[in-house]
Design goal:
mainly alpha; 5% strand
Amino acid sequence: MSLIGNILWILLGGGIFLFLEYLIGGLVLCLTIIGIPFGLQVIKLAFLSLLPFGKEITHSKPTPGILSVIMNIIWILCGGIYIAATHLIFGILCAITIIGIPFAKQHIKLAVLSLTPFGYTYR
């Protein structure tokens, strides 16, 4: 079922556009030494946004470390809240129709991860 969902996500849900946007943004962030940790998180978001069905988001540790908290605060202040808001808006728009509810769930999952990407893993 996740294979069908991922194919529909790429074709109808805008998954390929999300992937390209996140990938380009991550590569641009990796151009500077300071931006490398942020760029790596954005590249992780790119691959999750390409094939989100069948993936679970979990904490990498039971309690996030202080470095993860600091990096998440910097991330939120520098634009993470706008990315999460965009996913939330698209999630609401997808949830209007019954067919779009699975896509809305994936946008909400991406919104959570795009708000605070440090300290999470997905599989």
